[in-house]
Amino acid sequence: MVEPEYVATIGLEVHVQLDTVSKMFCACRTSFAAPPNTAVCPVCLGYPGALPVMNRKAVEYTVRAGLMLDCDIQSHSKFDRKSYFYPDMPKNYQISQYDQPLCQGGGVEIDTDAGTRIIRLRRIHLEEDVAKNMHFAQSSGVDFNRAGTPLMEIVTQPDIESADEALGFLQTLKALMLYSGVSRCNLEEGNMRCDVNISMRPAGREALGTKAEIKNLNTFKGVQGALLYEIDRQADVLRGGGEIVQETRRWDVDVGKTFSMRIKEDDHDYRYFPDPDLMPVVLEPKEIADWRQELPEAPRARRVRFVEQYELPDYDAGVLVADKAVADYFEEAADLSSNSKAVSNWIMTEMLRMLAEREGAITDVLIRPAALAELIGLVDDETLNSNSAKEVFVSLFEDGGMPAALVKEKGLAQVSDSASIEAFVEQAIAENPKSVSDYKAGKTKAAKFLVGQVMRMSQGRSNPQLVMKALESRLAD
User: Fold this and answer.
1) For residue range 427-466, what is the model confidence (pLDDT) as tens digits?
2) HEC assignment per residue over the chain
3) Domains of the chain by start residue, with CATH
4) pTM to 2 decimal places
């Protein structure tokens, strides 16, 4: 294997909106779809004299996230003012945390081609989100509905070495946040956004190179694409004898390139200082212990358990636990069924395919776990064949109900009695003499055609295995 000429060093700053009812420092409701500038008040509009009041639930959610990520929870933290001048923050500073964040350390375990790796975290701090800038053909506007929404910033150490590792980290982090219940992590609604810091250095050199930051990436595919481009760009600059400039860049998905925006600021440019309007955050040990006790089973631990308890392949378990709602659905159905692998197969193929086609969520499907378990039971005891079972599944998916009643109502029960099957076989042989001749001449595929004819005659209700057995017996005469 050829050693790379240059090595990438990548750090991520992931912004995760917390799923609270109200904003970080005021009573305005958090809202995504409300008309512009309707979920606002003097606090989130930055009116002079308006005073912030801390949202305690946002603090709790941040600590819960930190506990899921094995962070050290700080019993004493504070809020600071981060000064900058931009239309999305009219008071000219953002309330954030600087030197005393709520969570420090921790890490995220990811799967790579070389095995598992732990991407270390530097910190998780809590802040208020900014407004949304909106650009039109001849003008620009600012929607302050988002301003003040509680926002966690999860900062990694520079441990990530490739675009694929960055993608794996983000997917794993999203699953952890969904499991902990602190965020909906809906990328389309901007619940999860990412800034990327990347530098390149010659292979074998320890000192890190000069980094560039790529701002406001709101899709995982965008993060991966921007990193792949930036790795090539910086390597080309270094290979040509040039120097990397510390700057902020933007990703243009339409052309697949990053472009320079401005020279990157340092921390001292923001002139952080403690916010005089907010008291420090003091957490009691019992409070932290209670939140730790309430944590759900983590996705990785759940995957291991699914393999052991339900005897699933590791791949199946990984697909199921990636979405907590899907894993919950599987577990409820599997506990009602004697065939856990069949439950997994139905969910991973038919269920997820139909959900993707309809852009739906498994929490909204009408076929309940008990109905899926019953359907699998009907297949296992040969009341239904696979084709009829799929027909029943589609009906249950669309309209709900229970499969046994639906099978009886539509007359879909599988034909397994030998007399009925032999009658269909005789008819198929009589109507298709060429296929019979082909089969006897050694063309075994002709038997599959004859099986298909029997299935057509029985409207798909015959037991295919018994049909094949009857055909082979009859054609052997």
Assistant:
1) 777 777 777 666 666 666 666 777 677 677 766 666 666 6
2) CCCCCEEEEEEEEEEEECCCCECCCCCCECCCCCCCCCCCCCCCCCCCCCCCCCCHHHHHHHHHHHHHCCCEECCEECCEEEECCECCECCCEEEECCCCCCEECCEEEEEECCEEEEEEEEEEEEEECCCEEEECCCCEEEECCCCCCEEEEEEECCCECCHHHHHHHHHHHHHHHHHHCCCCCCHHHCCEEEEEEEEEEECCCCCCCCCEEEEEECCHHHHHHHHHHHHHHHHHHHHCCCCCCCEEEEEECCCCEEEEEEECCCHHHHCCEECCCCCCEECCHHHHHHHHHCCCCCHHHHHHHHHHHHCCCHHHHHHHHCCHHHHHHHHHHHCCCCCHHHHHHHHHHHHHHHHHHHCCCHHHCCCCHHHHHHHHHHHHCCCCCHHHHHHHHHHHHHHCCCHHHHHHHHCCCCECCHHHHHHHHHHHHHHCHHHHHHHHCCCCHHHHHHHHHHHHHCCCCECHHHHHHHHHHHHCC
3) 6-290 (no CATH), 297-410 (no CATH), 418-475 (1.10.10.410)
4) 0.85
